[in-house]
Amino acid sequence: GSLVNVFQQGVSASTGKAEHWAVTAKDMAARPGLRVAGALLLALTLSLVAADTSLLKHIDKAPPHGTPSRPSSTSSAAFGNLPPASVSRFVPETSRSWRGNDALRFSSTYAQGTTVRGFLCSDFVRIGPYGSFSPFCCVTSVSGMFDGSGIAGFAPPSRRDPNSQFPPLPPLFLSLANVTGQDTAKHDMPVPKPIFSFLSSPHNAELQLGGYDEDSVEGKMMTVDSLSKYAYVVPVTSISLGKTPILTLTPDAKSSPHPKASAILDSGTTCVCLPDNHMKGAAEGLSPWERFSKAWEGETLNSLHVEVDGRIQVEIPSSVWVPQMQGVKGCLMKHCPNDHIVLGDWLFQSWLVMFDLGPTSEEKAPSIGFAKRRGSYKVGQNYQTHERKGGVTKVAMSREKLSKQFDTPNMPGYAKPPPST
């Protein structure tokens, strides 16, 4: 579950699948059909600051293989053959508190097909006014649509691998919020509540830490428990586009005590993914993808309605979904992970979605909240992050449009030196 794409050059939180904000879902398998040209990524600057070396507990310092012993220059020449990136890159040698070990390797493939590889690191990470000593992945190889920027994981805790002697590393947000209560380092300033909210617009987005700003929504917050402890997944009982039904459950699915249709919430998905099948017997008639494909051009004045848990009516207006259907190649996807529907950026442009990871400290599924966006609310302003409202801190983000495939097999210290002249 990462829910949103949040970036810091050269650093990726080591939480695994689809952490597109992140709130991306861990169980999402990489499939060619999930590659979307022009995927929209949200950029958030994370600052890494020096911390007392007494905080460095679990990872021994070992510079990457081939890394020069002296601090490297931050000039563009220091980054080998990486493509241009949107924010300054993280250079481990410039941090007194960074720790990493090249022997602890990491690899993760995301929903769009991007693969990042590297080794495990740790350092003091700050977002807005909050910070903690956190593990992450130092990326050494990128293949796919990302430009070398990192991915901040706001997913729930990972499932433990029964074949590994090591526990999974905590997602970045769990470190920031000190969900386990085990981090008492004097330098840390955790998020006061293990809750964050996300909302976006065509050009900006914002992360709300510690809860949600009531002025950004209208009506009450409606919550539902995630169907998974390891991802943000909600039960879906119907989908319609105007008067056209897109998902109609079979009588057996309707009468089942357990949800038969579900949706992954993934801000890293530009539009939506609808399975081109009967969703293991849950969908009646034509597949959701086929129904939408045939109907959408005749429904461009109407909203897309998604019913969550039989009681939460999520409306996505035509002003949100139509421009992307008309302007983004591959917007409507059909190769969905494990026959899950994927609700992407359309959802976050229409609603504020809140993620409460408090229950995960008791090994329960996170709680997910939906609140309709207030029409007059301006997303992603230049907030003063030291000024909090109701215990909530807001961090503004900008949207970057990436339409190019990158293949950057080497990061600093791994690239072959250029031939001497």
Q: How big is the Rg? A: 21 Å
Shape: globular
User: How many angstroms separate the termini?
Assistant: 48 Å
Q: Helices and strands: which structural class?
A: mainly beta
**Largest sheet geometry:** 8 strands, mixed
Q: How would you characterize the overall build of this protein?
A:
8% of the residues lie in helices and 31% in strands. With 421 residues, it is mainly β. A hairpin with a 3-residue loop joins β9 and β10 (204-209). It is globular, with a radius of gyration of 21 Å. Residues 1-82 and 403-417 have low confidence and may be disordered.
Give the SSE map.
Blueprint: E1 3-4, E2 11-12, E3 21-22, E4 40-43, E5 47-48, E6 99-109, E7 115-127, E8 130-144, H1 172-177, E9 195-200, E10 204-209, E11 217-225, E12 233-241, E13 244-248, H2 251-255, E14 262-265, E15 272-273, H3 288-295, E16 304-308, E17 312-316, H4 318-327, E18 332-333, E19 341-343, H5 345-350, E20 351-356, E21 367-373, E22 393-401, E23 406-408
Parallel strand pairs: 14-19, 15-18
Antiparallel strand pairs: 1-3, 2-8, 4-22, 5-7, 6-7, 7-8, 8-23, 9-10, 9-20, 10-22, 11-21, 12-13, 12-14, 12-16, 15-19, 16-17, 20-21
Brief overview:
The chain has 421 residues and is mainly beta. The chain is built from five helices and 23 strands.
Keyword list:
single chain, 421 residues, mainly beta, 8-stranded mixed β-sheet, 7-stranded antiparallel β-sheet, 5 helices, 23 strands
